Amino acid sequence: MARTPAVEHSFAAACPLPVGPGPSPCGAGAVDADVVGAVLRTARAVLTERVAQASEIDASFAEELAGQVRDFTLEGGKRLRPRLLWWGMRACGAGDATSTAAALRLGVALELIQTCALIHDDVMDHSRLRRGKPAVHIGLAASAGLSPESERGSAFGTSAAVLAGDLALVWADDTVAETALPTPVRRRVGAIWRSMRTEMVAGQFLDLHGQVAGDSSAARALRTACLKSALYSVERPLLLGAALADADERTTAALRLAGRSAGIAFQLRDDLLGVFGDPGLTGKPSGDDIREGKPTYLLAVARERAGAADDEKALAVLGRAVGNPDVTEDDLGNVRDVLEATGARAHVEREAEHLGEEAVRRLGEAVDIGSYGGRQLLGLVRAVSGGRSNPSPTAPADEPHGHDGRTADQVLTTAEGGHSR
């Protein structure tokens, strides 16, 4: 239930969130009541300071670029990563003043690295919309008085957006570096953070490379999904929370598997939404993955199944549409028909479902899901993994482990590049 302005005011007054890196006067229980609100207030404080620092360098830089990064970070998103971090920490038993303040600041850093990823992703994908609004590169061109459609406007908007994403990453790193942490915890947090940044870039590269390279296999697509989304969206935030709680190796290992399973399920469902989703709900045009020739697992499975069945018609439909920027709505409809007819949609839905079940099982090995923090984390992991929403009408009920009888563990092994866990 939404809080009234009076409740919002009373919560903010009871829980003042400092800009600085030290302990918070706010108790963990107060943040429990409104994690998103606490992260947002911390983000406003941190970003206000960052923009003020930018204004000391140059007024136009602060207003036109730093301000865009601030506004984009504050305006949208579900704050998924900070919530996973918070409830991962709470489920592992932490919640003192130092860990509370650190979790909120690291949550802001996660939002900033997400800002970097989304801005750069929209530039690389030539996407015009993000969260139902003009993408940052479009907005930057317009704010400079240029038409985003013109060569000059497009070049300026693209270049400025690259800088905006870079600035978000710089701010994210600064926020982590300035957060007060005990030395052993700082080492753990630093190692996770460094791995996450590199994995995110590697995943984005594989996504780009897959659009021009010959390897369009389902295994490669699953590996890309793991690197590009699952690790930095779910697994790494959970591990940051565990690190703040100084969780032991057994707990950390189980949380890692829970996060990876949920994260891959999350990306598989996102791929489905990219083709079958309602643009009014997703905030992005449906079919962009097809136009851009994205190496998604969904499309890879469809190709493999059509090839195995010698379905030349289906392969021809995919060949004409995937990677064609001028694809028509009729072409997109034909691709959706192929995804249904080959069973690719049903297969991806099933594998996402099994991965979600694996995530819950692993979570139960990691934390006490009967505790308050454990229950909250369980609900969030289930929400991330997703339930079946408008499932494919062609999905058979007698395939217990997905395509070719694969278990969730085998799917994870494929996503990890074939390495045993």
UniProtKB/TrEMBL annotation:
**Keywords assigned by UniProt?**
Magnesium, Metal-binding, Transferase
Q: Which CDD domains match?
A: Trans_IPPS_HT
Database matches in InterPro entries: Isoprenoid_synthase_dom_sf, Polyprenyl_synt, Polyprenyl_synt_CS
User: Transmembrane segments in this chain: where?
Assistant: none
Q: Does the keyword ATP-binding apply?
A: no
PANTHER family tied to this protein: GERANYLGERANYL PYROPHOSPHATE SYNTHASE, SHORT CHAIN ISOPRENYL DIPHOSPHATE SYNTHASE
| Pfam families the UniProt entry points to | polyprenyl_synt
Q: Which protein are we looking at?
A: Polyprenyl synthetase family protein
Question: According to its UniProt record, which cofactors does this protein need?
Answer: Mg(2+)
What Enzyme Commission number does this protein have?
2.5.1.-
Family of this protein: Belongs to the FPP/GGPP synthase family.
Gene source species: Streptomyces bacillaris
| MF terms in GO | transferase activity
Q: What class of enzyme is it?
A: transferase
| Disordered: region residues | 384-421
SUPFAM superfamilies reported in the protein's UniProt record: Terpenoid synthases
Q: Where is the composition biased (Basic and acidic residues)?
A: 398-407
